[in-house]
Structures are given as structure tokens and as C-alpha cells.
Design brief:
Elements (H helix, E strand, L loop, with lengths): L27 H14 L12 E6 L3 H4 L14 H15 L6 E7 L12 E2 L11 E2 L1 H5 L4 E2 L13 H14 L5 E2 L16 H14 L4 E5 L29 H9 L2 E6 L2 H17 L9 E4 L7 E2 L3 E2 L1 H13 L3 E3 L10
Parallel strand pairs: 1-2, 1-8, 2-7, 8-9, 9-12
Antiparallel strand pairs: 3-5, 4-6, 10-11
Helix pairs in contact: 1-6, 3-6, 8-9
């Protein structure tokens, strides 16, 4: 790792990189006392006094993506990528505690019956697709896969669901997006996989107490009829009848005007992170493309989806980041000092 910059704060004693790949209970009471003492000993002022306002936007840093053996662990090509990313990210937060004004966290949030989960689909024999199956328009028109007619509840009230899913998959194709992928059940609301990585939660809480500022949480991904990689909006935002499946999360866009710089990290680089950045870029192009210069992508704190022997999104992720940089965004490393200049 690159030598730490002289402006960095030291790491607090409670932080242990050996625990980043573990799930544990955060000691809020003890940590709050430590954070208060830390702010006093290092002359850390309340966030509201910051002259330069820095937002850290963390995308889906949840157990389901970041803990080995959990449902959709982002191992990258190294096999431990998300763990390595989160070690660097924890240290970035602690080293730059006095510079980070606010932390916003997005959380992928799912229920069992959703368009990208196995139970939603069946073949002619009633079998569900295996995880990582990709469903194309040809698959639907050739009747290889169809909507599971045994699903009731809300979906039973939707007219012609099979027609909708064909429209959905065609929309993804027409807009140049990823094919519909069947993912393992993951980020299940109420489950331990949905929770933030403990070491990241610990760092966010420590920052909140030390700087006297509330973290912000954005929930996404609950609608059963659409994927929701981006924190800003779903992949398909309306159905055949024109009903809205998800609106633009304008709060994140508004932050571009409220903060002097926005740092972005999280999982996975090829999916939820890249899609969020893509949508931010699309929105700022409507108003002021120069706002892209405010955005700093922590490249060493995000990794792509790699399923050995199945699929590797590394090159697509790198291509997306290259395009973001071409549009004016900044590609940086966690070991670089945070931007506090005009």
C-alpha cells in the first residue's frame, strides 16, 4: 500500500482489518465514547462548520456482497476483492474523518418474488432457472422460460404478466443494458445479508458521533417487476400501462449542488456502482456537465462481478470508468489525500 499522506488522521484503536470479513455486533455505547474522545484529542470540529463540504456516497456495502460465503460475494479476480476494498475504504474514512462532511449509504433491498430471482420463472417442466442464467427475448418467444403462473398476491392482479416480461426484456435490449440475469436470493429484507458490513457500519457510526452529523440511508430495489442496480432509478421505470415502477431519486442529484466534492465507492463496480454513476452523469448532462468535476471515484474501493467459469465483468467495469473519466469525473485511489481545494 502507498505510504500514508501526512494530512491523514491515524487509525483509531478499535479498528481491526482482520475483522473486515466478519459479521459482528457494533458496540455503539463504547464506540460513541471513543468517538467523542477522538474528536477532542484530534481537534475534529462538527461537520456543519466545514468550509469545504465533502460527501462520501457508499453503494450497497452489505454482507450479501462483501462477506465470503454470503449469497453474492464480489470476489473479483483476486477471490477476496470486496474484503480488500472494504479494508481500504475503512482506512479512507478514518484517515479523512475530519474532511468527510456527510456519508450517504445505499442499500439493495429485496424480497423473494422479484423478476431477477429464480421463483419468478419456470420452464415447460416447472423448473426454475439456475442462478446466473441470463434470459433473453428469444428465450421468452421460444417458450424456454415463462412467468411462474403460481405466483399470487400483487402480481396476480397485473394484466398479462407474460406480455409484460417480454416488454421488460426487450426494453433492456433496446436501451443497451445488461441482459436480465437471474441472481441468487440476496439482500433479503430482514436478513443478515441485507445488513451493512460490520466494519463499515462501525466506521460510519464513529464518523457520525465524532463529527455530530447524521448519516443518510437510501433504500432501493424492492419493486418485484424491475431490476434496480442504480441508486437513482430502476432499469425499467414504467410498465405497459404506463404505471410508474420507480421515480428518480433526486436527493442524490441535489447533493451535487450542496457539496463541493462527492466521493463514490461500493459494490459492485460493474453493476450498482457503475449504473449509479451512469445515471448521475445522465442527469448532470441535462443541467451542467461541469458538475462531473466534483465527482471522485475511489477505484480501489470497488470491484466487478466475476463468477469463475461463468462470467467476468472486469473489462466492462473498466470501460465504464474510462468513459466516466472522459466526461470529467476523477479516478482516484483511497491513499490519496481527499480533495479540499476549490
Amino acid at each position: 500500500m502507498t505510504e500514508k499522506h501526512s494530512s491523514f488522521l491515524p487509525l483509531p484503536v478499535h479498528y481491526s482489518p482482520q475483522k473486515v470479513d466478519q459479521v459482528y455486533r457494533v458496540d455503539y455505547a463504547g464506540l460513541s465514547t471513543d468517538a467523542k474522545n477522538w474528536s477532542i484529542s484530534h481537534n475534529i470540529t462538527p461537520a456543519e462548520l466545514d468550509k469545504k463540504r465533502i460527501l462520501l456516497l457508499l453503494i450497497d456495502i452489505q454482507n450479501t456482497f462483501c462477506i465470503p460465503s454470503y449469497e453474492l460475494f464480489v470476489g473479483g479476480r483476486s477471490g477476496r476483492a470486496a474484503v480488500e476494498d472494504n479494508e481500504r475504504l475503512c482506512e479512507f474514512i478514518y484517515h479523512n474523518l475530519s474532511s468527510i462532511t456527510k456519508i450517504t449509504v445505499t442499500m439493495d433491498t429485496h424480497l423473494p418474488i422479484q423478476i431477477f430471482h429464480p421463483i419468478f420463472w419456470v420452464d415447460a417442466k416447472g423448473n426454475h432457472p439456475e442462478p446466473y442464467t441470463r434470459i433473453t427475448l428469444d428465450d421468452l418467444r421460444n417458450h424456454r422460460w415463462k412467468y411462474n403462473p403460481l405466483i399470487g398476491g400483487y402480481l396476480a392482479s397485473i394484466p398479462n404478466v407474460q406480455q409484460y416480461v417480454e416488454y421488460y426484456v426487450k426494453t433492456l435490449t433496446d436501451e443497451g443494458k445488461y441482459d436480465l440475469t437471474i441472481w441468487p436470493y440476496h439482500a433479503m429484507l430482514g436478513g443478515i445479508g441485507h445488513a451493512l458490513v460490520s466494519a463499515i457500519e462501525e466506521a460510519i457510526f464513529f464518523h457520525s458521533i465524532a463529527r455530530n452529523v447524521q448519516p443518510n440511508f437510501e433504500i432501493k430495489g424492492e419493486h418485484p417487476l424491475t431490476e434496480h442496480y442504480s441508486a437513482l432509478k430502476p432499469e425499467v421505470d414504467h410498465d405497459l400501462q404506463g404505471n410508474i415502477l420507480g421515480k428518480l431519486n433526486s436527493r442524490i442529484i441535489e447533493d451535487l449542488n450542496q457539496f463541493d466534492a462527492i466521493y463514490i465507492a461500493g459494490q459492485a463496480k460493474s453493476h450498482c456502482v457503475a449504473f449509479t454513476i451512469r445515471d448521475i452523469l445522465q442527469e448532470i448532462k441535462k443541467t451542467n456537465i461541469h458538475l462531473a468535476r466534483k465527482i471522485f471515484l475511489l477505484e480501489d474501493c470497488s470491484s466487478p462481478v466475476v463468477i469463475p467459469g461463468v462470467i467476468d465483468y472486469s473489462e466492462l467495469a473498466d470501460k465504464a470508468y474510462y468513459e466516466f473519466e472522459e466526461e470529467g469525473m476523477n479516478i482516484v485511489q483511497s491513499t490519496e489525500p481527499i480533495c479540499n481545494s476549490d
